[in-house]
Specification:
Helix content: 25-40%
CATH class: Alpha Beta
CATH superfamily: P-loop containing nucleotide triphosphate hydrolases
Largest sheet: 6 strands, mixed
Number of helices: 9
CATH architecture: 3-Layer(aba) Sandwich
Order of helices and strands: EEEHEEEHHHHEHEHEEHHEE
CATH topology: Rossmann fold
Shape: globular
Radius of gyration: 19 Å
Strand order of the largest sheet: 6-7-8-3-9-10
Number of domains: 1
């Protein structure tokens, strides 16, 4: 199985402060990886390095088998940030228009959408459960609905990898589960590799295939079942500095188990 991301012996520091030390992470094609860790653990810095927003200091990053310094096919990667938490609700654009703006690189600026382009926008909205809202103004939607629209915007360029930074910021607590289920469906039904930075350790445990636990050092990297076992032995408290318990949700039987 091809690796979408390979991170080897990665270290990074801001002036005198070391943020990441000797990080090694592999993201296999078709996987759903959650990167978890306390505030200030280096998660955001790691994302910036993967996205090429920061220059490497020590170590290597390979994207789709190519060194990041030589990688040019950024259309293969979709990125969704914490936009819903700070989005200007007065922005005068419909949901359809926001999503179609994700095709600018493919069709060019100020070009009219052809029938096939409009179809891709509709399909992307359908994939995130927002098709019926296509003619609504983006500012009329809830934070969770807006975030789904931004994911659809990333999907129209048909990325192979989708990176999400704390996507449930601004999402109502009662809608978080359905939001993560939507992401899991994108992974399983569309075969999109997902990399997610999150604090929702318990909520995502039954959705993701792999977990990386980060706090300057990489404390765990492996399949979700092994991560849950780590939690059951209360070893995550060493990373977070307080007790952490991962809840795995058994939805078929309507229960929740530790």
């Amino acid at each position: 199985m091809q690796s979408i991301i390979d991170i080897k012996n990665l270290s990074y520091r801001y002036e005198k402060d070391s943020v990441l030390e000797d990080i090694n992470i592999t993201v296999p094609e078709g996987s759903f990886l959650a990167i978890v860790g306390p505030n200030g653990s280096g998660k955001s810095t790691l994302l910036k390095l993967i996205l090429g927003l920061l220059k490497l200091q020590k170590g290597e990053i390979f994207l789709f088998g190519e060194e990041i310094s030589k990688f040019r096919d950024w259309q293969k990667i979709g990125f969704v940030s914490q936009k819903a938490n700070s989005f200007n609700t007065g922005f005068p654009a419909t949901v359809f228009e926001v999503v179609s703006s994700g095709m600018t690189k493919k069709i060019g600026l100020f070009r009219f959408l052809k029938k096939e382009h409009k179809q891709k926008v509709t399909e992307a909205l359908d994939a995130v459960g927002m098709k019926e809202f296509s003619h609504r103004n983006i500012g009329e939607l809830s934070g969770g609905q807006q975030q789904r629209v931004f994911i659809a915007r990333a999907l129209v360029s048909e990325p192979k990898l989708l990176i999400l930074d704390e996507p449930t910021v601004g999402v109502d607590a009662e809608n978080v589960h359905s939001f993560y289920q939507m992401l899991a469906d994108l992974n399983t039904n569309r075969g999109i590799t997902l990399l997610l930075v999150t604090h929702d350790i318990g909520t995502i445990s039954d959705k993701v295939t792999h977990v990386a636990c980060l706090n300057k050092h990489l404390h765990f990297h492996g399949i979700t079942k092994e991560f849950e076992q780590l939690s059951s032995r209360n070893e995550l408290s060493k990373v977070y500095g307080h007790d952490v318990h991962v809840l795995t949700h058994n939805h078929e039987h309507g229960g929740v188990k530790n």
